Automatic annotation (TrEMBL):
The keyword Isomerase does not apply. SUPFAM superfamilies: WD40 repeat-like. InterPro entries: WD40/YVTN_repeat-like_dom_sf, WD40_PAC1, WD40_repeat_CS, WD40_repeat_dom_sf, WD40_rpt. Residues 1-26, 372-400 are annotated as: Disordered. Pfam families: WD40. WD repeats lie at residues 47-86, 244-283, 285-320, 327-366. Keywords: Repeat, WD repeat. The lineage of its organism: Eukaryota, Metazoa, Spiralia, Lophotrochozoa, Mollusca. This is KIF21.
Amino acid sequence: MCSRLTSNTQPPSLNPPNRGNIVPNPNTGKITMTSGKPAPVTCTHMAEGHSKAVLSVFATDDLLFTSSKDRTAKAWDLQTGKEVMSFAGHPNNVLSVKYNELLNLVFTVSQSYINVWDYRMNATQCIKTLSSSGLTHDGPVNFQSGIRQSELPPGEHNINDIALGCDGYTLYSATGSMVRVWDLTTFSAIGKLNGGHQAAVMVLAVEQQKDNDVVITGSKDHYIKIFEVTDDKAGVLTPKYNLEPPHYDGIQSLAIKENILFSGSRDTCIKKWDLKTHHLKQSINQAHKDWICGLSFIPDSNIVLSGCRGGYLKLWNVDNCHCMGEVKAHTSPINAVATNGSAIFTASNDSAVKIWQFNRIQTLTTLWESGGPNPDWKPRTHQLSSPKSKSENYIYKRYR
């Protein structure tokens, strides 16, 4: 898998000892269709280099980025299978990592800070630090060397997620119950998405619509809200839509593709939403037996992936929400799922990232849509429910 990718973005020549590697998986696993027929989705490699749980994963066709509880983020070359950069100096766990291909910038999140790294420079040099309060610092914020920070500075709050705008010049950061908007040409905070949630925003998703960003927020208050961000992106924007009925617990994951949104929750349910009508299309009850922490579409296919705290990875047909297959991907919780043009990446508490190939996934999709190989197969383990009336009374769990 690694050898057939070519990289157009070359980092500085860095080859210190103790670098991680992407290695072949000795215990090759396969996803089996629920009909019992083998499916061509196989775990072929593992990225090994983190010393603690991997919390986030982000992939391009050439590069893989990971972040961990070991207070580092890493960049991996998918052509050579080597770790090429390590981003250190964070105050605590690195919750999220994103890469902006247009600007060659890497963003890492730890506590109340977003560190900005220029991928073309030495990875030890953080060029900017963005704080939850909207302040910008040149270079890194200095912490006591080697000491994990447990307290936040006055006026700061934890940042739970970040997302890149579709134009490449905007960054969104979830802080408390609101989202801050950053202009990446000046590294300044220019706006807020606010006024909707009653608890912390845990996950973000962004899609382009008529040259504007549509920002989806998922919160601990069980609700998903939609913000339409205009060109100027300045000021305070309130949500345009509120998706109902809500989940029964906090939202942990979102995946958006054109006018389709999937949401995964602590309530073990996956919901499919139509972003044209803003209506619920389908609810997959008990999609997993634990929190659904990762969702991702497989490019050029009709499949969405889900990963849970129980370590299972499942494939779902986007149209009818039927489960197409599952695998016990990790013995520890899956914290994130990502895809690129040729692979699936799963990040887990076991400190590794597994790489799954789906070079024949289109064949699998075609088989399913044509009714084969087992046209009589019917899902037995997942209950599909139709959208419920808004007037129905819901019993909600406490915010966690």
